[in-house]
Write a structure and sequence with these properties.
The protein has two domains: 68 residues, no CATH class; 35 residues. Strands 1-2-3 form a three-stranded antiparallel sheet, with helices on one face. The protein is built from two helices and three strands. The protein has 108 residues and is α+β, with helices and mostly antiparallel strands.
């Protein structure tokens, strides 16, 4: 589906994804056989198929979650020293530590 809001200069493509909920996610009785979870993606890229748009933005959303976790859990966004290179070294060590923690979490 394509739409153009008042403040947009060009049309945007809206892709809707419907994913069936697992039985364990539904806590109450339902009138219908299945319940679904809906996801909406807005893009200006018309060259990708709907499936590729969903996969692309899901990966991008996962990256955003990793960045948010690293900022809040490891305090990555704060500059400690006045030297750019010293801050970069601290950032690299912090990210390496974060990746090791994520890897160990996956093993457990």
């Amino acid at each position: 589906m394509f739409t153009k809001l008042d403040k947009w200069k060009e049309n945007r493509r809206i892709v809707v994804s419907r994913v069936r909920k697992e039985i364990s996610e539904t806590n109450q009785l339902t009138l219908f056989d299945q319940e679904y979870r809906y996801f909406f993606f807005v893009t200006n890229d018309e060259s990708l198929t709907s499936e590729k748009v969903v996969l692309f933005y899901e990966e991008r959303g996962n990256c955003e979650n990793y960045i948010k976790k690293s900022k809040y859990d490891m305090n990555v966004g704060i500059l400690i020293l006045h030297s750019f290179w010293a801050n970069e070294a601290i950032f690299q060590l912090t990210m390496m530590t974060y990746n090791i923690f994520c890897y160990l979490r996956c093993l457990i």
